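Researcher: Go.
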Amino acid sequence: QADLRLNYEKYFYDKLSFYLLLAWVTMPIFILIGQTLRLEQVIGNLFLMYITILGITTFVFVSIYFYKLYQVNGFSYFRQGLIKRPWNLALFTMLIWSFLSSFLADDLMLAFYGTSYRNDGFFTYCIYAAIYCCAQINKSENLRLKVLQYFILVSLPLCLVTILQYFNYSTEALGIYYQERLLSNMRYAAIFYNTNHYGYYLTMIIATSAGLYLKSKTRLEQAFYVFVFTLNTWCLIINNTFGSYLAVFFICVIAP
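Model: Structure:
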């Protein structure tokens, strides 16, 4: 009965972490729909609202999971985990250092909350840490694979928007670009407010599709991953973010 209970808890945490990760990777679709319906005119910054609600939910879930581990295994379990996985120790140290630097900043509000454009304060770092821990909680290779597949699948509608803009088709009906943005350097950024941010997103998609291609077992899967890789690479060329060019180059060298 004890083993059955442990298996059920493992299944529960795997499933819940999967749905949380799925909500994160499909976020661009919800932002796209919200912009199409002009929801920003009603409820404000969609991105900030989304990451706040989902970020708090993820942080609470991870905290509950770690508390359960602490009850069963004690503090030594976490200490040994940090020793065995030095990258986790490095990330934890960076989080502590970020808190100290934020706490000693001249502008505490800016340090902890960031701005609506650069939402990169300490609390956002905590959300990043929660997402990372949420991914580590999930032990199911099948569910992890599904998250990555949804991640690259979501990029396709964004590519469509970018290509429509490139060929000068108006996407104002989608609520994404208005006339002043069509004439600015934010033209090829899909739902993002900055071309560089979209370039970083494309880099992650390209890297993920390359990795999935190397692990794929059927020709249909390989064809799909090649299609995603090629389409997002084209959009990266349209986007024209130099740092992302370099990142993709090193990915293509290292991945094989």
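Model: Residues 175-183 have pLDDT under 50 and may be disordered.
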